[in-house]
Design brief:
Elements (H helix, E strand, L loop, with lengths): L4 H8 L15 H6 L8 H4 L5 H21 L18 H16 L1
Length: 106
């Protein structure tokens, strides 16, 4: 014999709960579509007034990233290094100065 499930639920329900106008499964379809809740840190949340502002900012970031990725994609011309020698480092300048000093001494 199975235990009565209803008695378990009745034990948890308080008398002040009123479900007379409740609709069973009201948000079920929306829940099935999925949800993506993101919690913002307080300093970030202070910048955005509502969820529409956050969405606009993120859409702008996504389009910027996509444009940058397309510019650096395989179809974009590769950037070449300039055809000139690099500037000598300070170490090579000092070594060159020592050689010149030795040559001048004889």
């Amino acid at each position: 014999m199975k235990p009565d499930r209803r008695s378990d639920r009745d034990d948890e329900m308080l008398p002040e709960y009123d479900f007379t106008g409740a609709v069973r499964g009201k948000y079920y379809d929306r829940y099935r579509q999925g949800t993506n809740v993101v919690l913002l840190d307080p300093d970030v949340a202070a910048v955005f007034r509502d969820s529409a502002a956050v969405n606009d900012a993120l859409r702008g970031l996504v389009s910027l990233a996509a444009a940058k990725a397309a510019a650096h994609g395989s179809h974009a011309p590769q950037r070449r290094r300039p055809n000139k020698p690099l500037q000598p480092t300070s170490r090579t300048r000092r070594a060159g100065a020592r050689k010149q000093a030795r040559a001048a001494r004889g």
